[in-house]
């Protein structure tokens, strides 16, 4: 089972990295993705 957990964690980090790249880009999606990532960070508040 630890191998599956590690694979899942790696997939999550890869998805977060892709979102980070989009948020730091110059497309029309940047502000939307940046807002989404901020919502993840401030999710507990």
Quaternary state of the chains: single chain
β-strand number: 0
Q: Helical stretch count? A: 2
- Sequence of secondary-structure elements: HH
Shape: flat
Strand percent estimate: under 5%
End-to-end separation in angstroms reads 33 Å
Q: Output the radius of gyration.
A: 13 Å
Mean pLDDT rating: 88
Major sheet characteristics: none
Would you give an account of this structure?
The structure is a single chain. Helix content is 76%, strand content 0%. It has 45 residues and is an all-alpha fold. The protein has one domain. The longest helix is centred in the first third of the chain and has 22 residues, at 2-23. The N and C termini lie far apart (33 Å). The mean pLDDT is 88.
List keywords for this structure.
45 residues; mainly alpha; 2 helices; 76% helix
Please write out the topology.
Layout: H1 2-23, H2 30-41
Helix pairs in contact: 1-2
Compact description:
This protein is an all-alpha fold.
């Amino acid at each position: 089972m630890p191998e599956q957990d590690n694979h899942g964690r790696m997939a999550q980090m890869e998805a977060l990295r892709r979102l980070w790249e989009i948020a730091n880009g110059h497309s029309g999606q940047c502000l939307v993705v940046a807002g989404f990532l901020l919502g993840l960070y401030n999710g507990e508040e």
